[in-house]
Specification:
The complex is a heterotrimer of chains A (197), B (423) and C (379).
Chain A (H helix, E strand, L loop, with lengths): L3 H16 L2 H10 L26 E6 L13 H5 L5 E4 L20 E5 L8 H5 L5 E4 L14 E2 L1 H4 E3 H7 L1 H19 L9
Helix pairs in contact in A: 1-2, 6-7
Chain B lengths: L3 H13 L8 H35 L15 H11 L10 H17 L18 H9 L2 H11 L3 H32 L4 H7 L9 H17 L11 H4 L10 H25 L10 H13 L6 H21 L5 H22 L5 H28 L3 H22 L10 E3 L1
Helix pairs in contact in B: 1-2, 2-3, 2-11, 2-14, 4-6, 4-11, 6-7, 7-9, 7-15, 9-11, 9-15, 11-14, 12-13, 15-16
Chain C lengths: L10 E5 L11 E7 L2 E8 L7 H7 L6 H5 L6 H15 L7 H30 L4 H21 L8 E2 L2 E2 L7 H23 L3 H7 L7 H6 L5 H5 L6 H4 L12 E3 L5 H25 L8 H8 L11 E8 L2 E9 L5 E7 L1 H5 L3 H5 L4 H11 L3 H5 L1
Antiparallel strand pairs in C: 1-2, 2-3, 4-5, 7-8, 8-9
Helix pairs in contact in C: 3-4, 4-5, 4-11, 4-15, 5-6, 6-11, 11-15
Classes of the chains: A alpha+beta (197), B mainly alpha (423), C alpha+beta (379).
Chain lengths: 197, 423, 379
Amino acid sequence: MIGIGVLKGLWVTLREFLGTYPAGRWLLTRLGASTGQGLFTIEYPEVKQQHAERHRVFPFLVYDASPDNLRCVACKICEQECPPQCIHIVGPAKDEQGRPLKAHGRTFPVKFDIDVSICMSCRICVDVCPFDAIEMDNAHELSGFDRFAEMVYTKEQLLKSNEYFQQIKPTEASVVDQRLAAKAAKTAMPPQPAASP
Amino acid sequence: MDQLFVVLKSSVVQLAGRWLPEGALPFVSMGLTIAAIAAAAPVIMMYLTWLERKIIARMQNRLGPNRVGLYGLAQPLADGLKMLIKEDIVPEGADRLVHSLAPVVAVVPALLVFAVLPFGRNMIAADLNVGLLYFLAVSSISSYAIFMGGWASRNKFSLLGAMRGVAQIISYEVPSVLSIVVVIMVAGTLSMGGIVEAQAARWFVFTPWGFVAALIFFLSGVAEVNRTPFDMPEAESEIVAGFHTEYSGMKFALWYMAEFLEAFAISAFTVTLFLGGWQGPAIPLWWVLFGSVCLVATARTIPTVLRVLGVVACVGSGVVAYLANEAVPSWAWFLAKTYGLVFVLVWFRGTLPRLRVDQLMGLAWKFFLPLTLINIASAALWVAMPGPSGGVLAGALLILSGWWLIRLNNPAPLQPRTYLFVE
Amino acid sequence: MTEPLLDTQLLEVNLGPQHPSTHGVFRMQALLDGETIVKLKPVMGYLHRNHEQLGEGMTYIASFPFTDRLDYFCAMTNNLGLALAIEQLAGGIEVPERAQYIRVIMSELTRLVNHTAVIGFLLNDMGAFGTPLLYAFREREKILDLFEMASGSRMMCNYIRPGGVREDVPEGFLERASRIVAEYPRFLDEFEALLTQNEIIRQRAQHVGVLSKELAINASITGPMLRASGVDYDIRKVDGYGIYPRFAFRIPLGTVGDVYDRYYVRILEMRESVAILQQALKEIPPGPSISPKGLQLVKSPRTFRPPKGAEAYGRIESPKGELGFFLASDGSPQPYRYHVRAPSFINLTVLEDLCLGHKVADVIIILGSIDIVMGEVDR
């Protein structure tokens, strides 16, 4: 048990200890030793960790300009593909005769619930959505006291504006905006005149 | 400043002499000392836990507790409160009397040894002329407590832990006692105050036999109090908590207190026996007070107002100390040295993994014990042949035997390994 | 034969499932003679979550988030295994060059992450009160931040897909990764200074839990445990999946096969991983990060219907051993049978042989050196 290896190990921890104090760092540089890594703690909640842009926690529904102009058309693909089955959609909204209602030229869901405690943050709903209507948010302080009132987010709680999306994820939002603009340009193109025989 | 506490106590005793008869005064004096120690011991233990948490945290690149009060200083109070209000669980089928008695039997000897510690000049509670023998006898009672705790818990893990603990403590008693024999030989007395005074010329640690004896005594002490790297009996990762698994609340607090008080006691005894006790070079007190100005001024977590006040207080007291020509008091030296050794204990805990039971015992019986016997011979040489010749012979004997024992104890299989690399 | 002088009893002890050091919920029923193990029976299944059966009810792509949670330290390599199996099942989906390099980078970063964590936990089991563990986790944090940059999540990455990776790495990722990889050898040197020459560790770990070559091969042990016993078998070299044949790296082999060898082989493997990472980060070409067929799979998982009766087994060298995914299709978008060959589970079967004759304290260390994650053992 006795030997140099133990002493070398003790020196490593002493160096880390001294390296967390300014006086200790001065002493270590005078001795020509490395100053260790310093303190690694982030003192939450006064200081919050900087997350990467792509940090994903919980989905949200995107709307352009006003909440009733949401991009979701209630196609229910995300509900089908969600691995833990945490999305519940009722829709599209229909009138008394059973014909789908339209807002801004699109159908829309009546209810859109996502259960916070079941969601795995896997992002598959975002990947499969053909209309870029659902995106991942990075707000993570989502605690609540009530299991169903606070831990199941309804459509109103999920709706957030495109400006919010651009603010939290600039690169991803610009890619999505370009894609949507290209799609809009294609559908807005006047139909080609038929080739004359 | 040096005799502050002695003067305080004698003035209180004189004050009591106005109302009480003469015969009662020694009891008052004793009572005051006992009260002081009994009040200080839990405080020492609490702030020792705080110190351990902060130091280990800093070694691990993180801050220790710093939310409960400034720098986490109120953390031990919060811990104490938590332990007091916890439910007291005694396992079904356990021996209730022994289960409840075990922590008490652990704490009482830990407190009793404080009676012979020389905290400063003229500051021993009871300067017995067999002080050292008293210390050795009383500190051995802890093995009873461990076995009582392990057996009464009716838990196989606790029993394992208790058996390991008892085996360990008994094994390490032997090198511990034998290493003190050299101190007795040279100092010529068993009394603690006498040993400290015998180091007035040179601390025992600066002699070859004293250095080896100090190391062995300290390491055996670490083993006696079950601290890493010898904390097999309470190995958290194997047998959950060993002999104190089944304790909760106040009883666990008592075990905890016993462990930390013993750790402090071991450091204090090493300081007394080998490191000169309360003696120290005669440094003027105002150096220390002015030096602490820098620390207070640069402490960023304290609000500026308090920092300014702290600097003013330090400077003011420094001026007073300069005018009074005070040296650093003896009890301050004692405490500084003891806490230095406590830092070493915590440093070991933060760095080293633990030894397995048989390796632990192998270390005691096969390495420490022969070395202490040879150490006694070398101290005898030192005493018989005063002057450089005795010193050189003693040192040579120790170095040779130490090297030979290390060789003997590191068997061949622990050679460096070779590793192949395949493309 | 003379009767023993002292009549003793064997002590039956349950180590776990609630135990600070069994790496998850794992139970060992041990029969002890004093402190020596006479019999040891591992009991698993406390973390069984029906992973394989869930996979039969979902599309192939929907299983990816669940593979993250199998061996929760190495999410990226789990994804890679399933992606390889699906590519095989589809009869070969093309993977662009850049995606191959990204896959190698992520796999080797995962290897670094896993090995530091394992060594940290092994030292924690030995009793070093958390310090090597916290140093290891400090280094892990930096790499986990890299994973968050690329995939959005630190541990449950869900990043690698058949046909490439789900999204290209963002700007700044490669520079940051190069910086971290450049500093890693210094951390490894410091870590080794703390541990490798430490006499206490050598005394505790050498000649403890020796695994012979024959037993290792007979029991299908794979990974660092096998290589520590001296068998030269690394799937990155044997199968050469992805673009591994392009990188120059060596395979460290141990000689004795004890706990110390397993610990040290992992440190050497980390150094080799650093070498691979440096080469990959330098040579990575620009280009697409997923092939068109892969992109189609990401956007519409239900269109992937392999022919009925097709079977595939995709395996990779995960940090713990050979991680294999077996898929059998019946023509529908959901697999007919989905099985995971978990290295931790198979490596755990020799636990009794390794522990017989050793003490209780050694059992914990041996378990730590096998490197198990209960998520993988129980699935």
